[in-house]
Amino acid sequence: LNDELHTFASQPARTADGKMIEIAANIACSFEAPAAFEKGAEGIGLFRTEMLFMERSKAPDEDEQFGYYREALEVAADKPVIIRTIDIGGDKPIDYLNLPQENNPFLGYRAVRIYPEFLALFHTQLRAILRAAVHGNAKIMIPMIQSIEEIRWVKQQLEIVKEQLAQESLAFSAEVPLGIMVEIPSVAFIVDQFCKEVDFFSIGSNDMTQYLLAVDRDNASVAKLYNSLAPAFLRMLSQVVQTAHQHGRWVGLCGELGADAKVLPLLIGAGLDEISMSAPKITETKATLCKLNSEDCKTLFEQACQCPTIADVQTLLENAAANQE
Ligand code: PEP
Ligand code: MG
Q1: What distance in angstroms lies between residue 111's CA and the mean position of ligand 1's atoms?
Q2: Which domain of life is it from (predicted)?
Q3: Check: complex ipTM more than 0.95
């Protein structure tokens, strides 16, 4: 079996009927990248850069960050590397920023919301990414975007740092694609507007599930209510993918849901272009994928969207899996 899995690692991800879906890896630091590509990753779908800022006494400077991003891009060769700007605050505190204690940190001061106050920190990261982008296929992704104003502000900051870099005669890439995490439910209703601002989307199923269903992702007392198979979640997925595709934008998914083999038929059926997951799951996912028929997955997904309950979606998935065997 191990040999068989090994073959999948080296083959492109596609369904039995030949539909290609990019299977990418989530990483938290550049030294995780080689193992991800050995498992068959076709790109890095989420580089959680906040890990580089945590458990230390001050932020990494521009050159240190440049080194990490460049390393990941070089390991990836020409494959895409989606570098997500820092997602701190909420469940990811950082001592040296002295962020306030909050009653509802998940609804509070985190990610893109703190960038205007910590402008130098944000600019430093953008500069490091744009400089590193010369060495590979980099994309920038912004976490916790909620409004058009926020993404427009981010784009202004990108222009400002590009001008700085040009004036300093530093090598950088001016054409790095920009995307957003779709992890706040309101964004799902205005994807058409966001299509005018960004190049791609990645659904953060961890936060999207928490916010869509109003269930704290870390609270054991309500863990039973935390389930991404909720029909409302599936309809959200459907709406985001369809709208983005109508406007010629691609959509990935980078939360834990992507690593759940049972759910894969639904993610394929929804029409996602890319699924990013923790590296150890990649080979298995490619092996599962090649047994699926994309048209059957589409029908299954449409049926799941019409289910009244999570239990009905689960039964639908179990029956479909049993029919496959
Ligand atoms: C998510 O919210 O699904 C996600 C991928 O981001 P994080 O888990 O880092 O919040
Ligand atoms: Mg998130």
Answers
A1: 11
A2: Bacteria
A3: yes
